[in-house]
């Protein structure tokens, strides 16, 4: 049983319900096509993480985006 966990930013940049559906369907189809996994037992979880909880290169993403 494959388990895939996708983490995305939450808040105003969170994916829509339609985008989440497309991600779930696409990942499930990819695992079936590439690894011959059964879609009926494939689990996909999407976690929305608040922007202030993301960091890259030692800096909070929210601060990095302000600098751009």
TrEMBL record:
Q: SUPFAM superfamilies in the record, alphabetically?
A: Tautomerase/MIF
Q: What is its EC number?
A: 5.3.2.-
- What Gene3D superfamilies does this protein's entry cite? Macrophage Migration Inhibitory Factor
Q: Name one GO molecular function term.
A: isomerase activity
Keywords carried by this UniProt record: Isomerase
Q: Which InterPro entries does the annotation name?
A: 4-OT, 4-OT-like_dom, Tautomerase/MIF_sf
Question: Isomerase as a keyword?
Answer: yes
Q: Where is the 4-oxalocrotonate tautomerase-like domain?
A: 2-61
Q: Does the keyword Plastid apply?
A: no
The domain of life for this entry's organism is Bacteria
Tell me which residues this entry annotates as catalytic: 2
Which segments of the protein form a coiled coil according to its record?
Answer: none
What family is reported? Belongs to the 4-oxalocrotonate tautomerase family.
Write the protein's name.
Answer: Tautomerase
Species annotation: Frederiksenia canicola
